[in-house]
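[Automated response] Your request has been received and processed.

Submitted sequence:
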Amino acid sequence: MTMVSASTAAAVDRVKQRIDAEGILAIRGIRKEFPGVLALDDVQLKVRPGTVHALMGENGAGKSTLMKIIAGIYQPDAGEITLRGKPVTLKSPLDALEQGISMIHQELALMNWMTVAENIWIRREPKNVFGLIDHGKMARQTQELFDRLNIRLDPLAMVSELTVAQKQMVEIAKAVSHNSDVLIMDEPTSAITENEVAHLFTIIRDLRARGVGIVYITHKMSELFEIADEFTVFRDGKYVGTHSALDVTRDDIIRMMVGRDITDMFPKIDCPIGEVVLEARNLTIPGVFHDVSFQLRKGEILGLAGLVGSKRSNVAEALFGVHPASSGEVLIDGTPVQITSPKVAMEHGMAFLTEDRKETGCFLILDCLENIQTALITRDHVRFGFIDQKAVTKLAEDMAAKLRVKTPNLAEKVENLSGGNQQKLLIARWLLTKPRILILDEPTRGIDVGAKSEIHRLITGLASEGVAVLMISSELPEVLGMSDRIMVMHEGHVAGFLNRDEADQVKIMDLAAR
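Generated structure:
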């Protein structure tokens, strides 16, 4: 047995004390500027080992920018990063990983044409004696990792076949597989259900017990108080403050984030509900969903709830003609219609906000104006064969301002915006079409608490003007707070309906889990 000298043990203790005092990760005076935008201005952050440190702030506050600096994606213009008490320069994501920092990004970054196992072990694939990838061993390593994390996925499944929530769990497993000292989680629960959130929190608590320092970004207040030890707030790229999660209330945090009180998160207006505008009769896609029937009325907000695998989004895509149903009927104003494409759906006054803004929503390489106006350029905005660009630009600017989209101007590329601001752009795009039937799939995913209240106010305002709204959400408080009725799905069929006055989380989950 090797004996450790007293001087060596004392030195180790001094290092441990310094790390406990200074944090396993410490950020000081970080500044980052992009063309026309000061994203970070002299911000700070300290993460202690064995703790969950929540980073809070509105969209555009600079949270994701700082995390990308810590992960080696961006380089700071000024400031210092220390890791385990020593200054470091993080030149690339690979450099950050090698120094013990891994990150789960807000936007999924998996390779759809590769298997789950290949995605997790990319650049770290086990090799056989001939130097070739040992796919059998890689699958076994993945299964062992999934067993440890209690994730039920096939390591050999193609990522393209997974749901958004399943992809999120793969991202989580991939990050954990690096055994890093610092783990950054940027909106890890934005695409998963409450059951999966509970599962993730079990994983986080295990990592915390092992001494990992976790930076946790979320817009969900309930998560902060359940999992975080302390939190730091940014506002408009500046550091506001750091507090223990035990010392503040939800309202304190909101005031720090937005600089004002938000008194009504779900400003539901009771408005007259009129005649049936949209009706689905026995819609079916074999192997996906079957016999889905419901009615949606003028001025009504119909919430659509269900666990992952309930096929809520598939129904929305069928209604909008993205993947039309194989059988069944869609009626608009009582007349059967054939919705064979999104173009046909739009001609019937429908609009559809997709759940995955990166894959099926935003055109990331185009600018903000081009993204907003893609659904707006119709006969109403074309004169003598030419787009009335002045009118279109004015409408886009007004809606972007109304939704408080943070961007230097509408010429900015969408890929440079935060995820929440990308979501706002998509909502702006569809609201400008003035739809009669509005399908919203996770409308507030990745949006800060202040913007959520504004989006909710817009939705209920549209309903009061007679728009029929079908709203899919994984957040039960949102479903309960905004809906006139709730339709619950389970494994591809309608499990039941609940009226607003009788619905609660227990009843919804009882139907969703049948």
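Summary generated for your ticket: The radius of gyration is 24 Å. DSSP finds 18 helices and 22 strands in the chain.
If you did not submit this request, please reply to this message.
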